[in-house]
Design goal:
Layout (H helix, E strand, L loop, with lengths): L1 E2 L2 E3 L2 E3 L1 E6 L22 H11 L8 H8 L3 H13 L13 H11 L3 H13 L2 H12 L3 E2 H11 L6 H16 L3 E4 L2 E4 L9 E3 L4 E3 L10 E13 L2 E12 L6 H12 L15
Antiparallel strand pairs: 1-4, 2-3, 4-11, 5-7, 6-7, 8-9, 10-11
Length: about 280
């Protein structure tokens, strides 16, 4: 069952999935029946394709990009679907970089580490598929590489074949580059990343809004709230909240999020009683 987003104080939030089953299925995030287009090359090849498209200001066919970087057109073709799905390439028969994709290409070309991290974070937080993968890692308190690769391929609705396993490793590399997960003793766990939005950070167990003001010029902000979990008899409830709101609504977010989660709680002991941290 999937609930519709809930409006709270003008803020529209919420992806809520309820799964009935045995304890062995806890932490599993189920995707839609549609297949997600995965990358089919290594992270290095994928970034090479991104940088290649920055050499064109107009929509370009595969052959032109292939000639520019000296790789076969099939390498570009098999990654174009993924790059389009996550908003790096604009859709169309001929492809061109989006504004964010162009910024990422520039950062990759000059190895600007902070910009690369921040841009990958923005891209991940706007992708429902990637955010659910991140939620799965956090809900399960981490996964080893083999398990995470298999989960990514399964969640994308793809067969467990070598090219898709390569793509799964690339997805992991993206999450690592974004500093949203990290490898700790052979296990990938959720990382408390530096936020791409000034003044807002997240961690695994709390929300923190710093005192840094949001300027009027910043019309809106997006925040990914760490996944929440409630256990009921025969049910495991996973709540993933993504928030897009006007800058003026930021000061009220903490209380609004707390209110929403408490309303969604079906058991008194699952209610949030501690105040989220406000610096």
């Amino acid at each position: 069952m999937t609930n519709r987003p809930h409006p709270v104080g003008g803020v529209l939030v919420g992806v809520c999935r309820v799964k009935r089953g045995s304890p062995s299925t806890e932490g599993e995030i189920h995707m839609s029946d549609e297949k997600f287009k995965m990358p089919l090359s290594s992270y290095e090849e994928l970034t090479k394709v991104i940088k290649a498209y920055s050499g064109f200001s107009e929509p370009t066919d595969l052959d032109a990009v292939s000639k520019l970087i000296g790789v076969h057109r099939t390498i570009i073709s098999r990654n174009a679907g993924f790059l389009t799905a996550i908003g790096i390439l604009e859709p169309g028969a001929k492809k061109t970089l989006s504004a964010r994709g162009r910024k990422l290409a520039h950062a990759l070309e000059h190895n600007m580490r902070d910009d690369i991290r921040a841009l990958w974070q923005e891209i991940v937080t706007e992708s429902d598929f990637l955010m659910r993968l991140l939620a799965a890692v956090r809900i399960r308190s981490g996964m080893d590489q083999q398990t995470l690769e298999a989960h990514i391929v399964y969640s994308a609705g793809q067969p467990k074949r070598p090219q898709f396993m390569t793509g799964a490793r690339t997805v992991i590399d993206i999450l690592v580059e974004a500093e949203l997960i990290k490898d700790v003793e052979g296990k990938y766990i959720g990382a408390a990343a530096k936020s791409a939005v000034p003044g807002i950070t997240t961690s695994d167990d709390r929300i923190s809004l710093s005192s840094m003001p949001v300027t009027p010029e910043q019309q809106s902000v997006g925040i990914a709230v760490p996944p929440l979990q409630a256990k009921l008899p025969g049910l495991v409830l996973h709540i993933q909240i993504n928030i897009n709101c006007a800058a003026a609504e930021v000061p009220d977010l903490v209380q609004n999020i707390k209110k929403l989660v408490n309303e969604l709680s079906m058991s008194g002991k699952d209610k949030i009683t501690d105040e989220p941290s406000v610096k």
